[in-house]
Design brief:
Length: 164
């Protein structure tokens, strides 16, 4: 098995490398925080194309296969709506970045969600984002939540399991 050609841990001392692709993903996520707060002040098309695909878990209100600027707008509106309705602001913290071959970057992070009426203790879980980057743009992002069902319950959504 071949490991990643670059790994950047944000919790351990010492960094093996910092690739252009990892720097790109870090800059995108810094930019994304600003865009989530004020989309009119930030140019989304600087980072994606009309064909860029964002795949969020289908069970979350902001989830599904989202394409281009309309998909990002849906993700933004639904995720902010879900948390704002509860008066909470989840915190996402980078843990590590891994670079693979062919413009692929994995971002490992942790999401911490404050207590809600549906989950009286804080919820902390892992999350992985897989980025495909080509020609200075994001081609695709897939998100993998460690425990989507617990997140949905914590936010007050009914969790349904598809019939077999």
């Amino acid at each position: 098995m071949v490991g990643p050609k670059c790994r950047v841990s944000l919790t351990e001392k010492g960094t093996a490398c910092m690739s252009t692709e990892i720097e790109f993903v870090k800059r995108y996520n810094d930019w994304l925080n600003g865009w989530m707060a004020d989309p009119e002040a930030h140019d989304l098309m600087e980072w994606i194309t009309p064909e860029t695909v964002l795949i969020e878990p289908a069970g979350v209100p902001w989830g599904g296969t989202l394409i281009g600027a309309p998909g990002w707008k849906h993700m933004r509106d639904e995720s902010i709506g879900a948390t704002a309705a509860l008066g909470i602001f989840p915190v996402m913290t980078d843990v590590a970045y891994f670079e693979g071959e062919g413009g692929i970057v994995l971002r490992e992070l942790r999401i911490d969600v404050p207590p809600t009426p549906y989950g009286t203790e804080p919820l902390s879980m892992g999350l992985i984002e897989k980025y495909w980057i080509a020609d200075g743009k994001i081609v695709r992002i897939e998100e993998f939540y460690a425990d989507t069902a617990s997140l949905l319950k914590h936010l007050g959504y009914t969790v349904s399991v598809p019939a077999a």
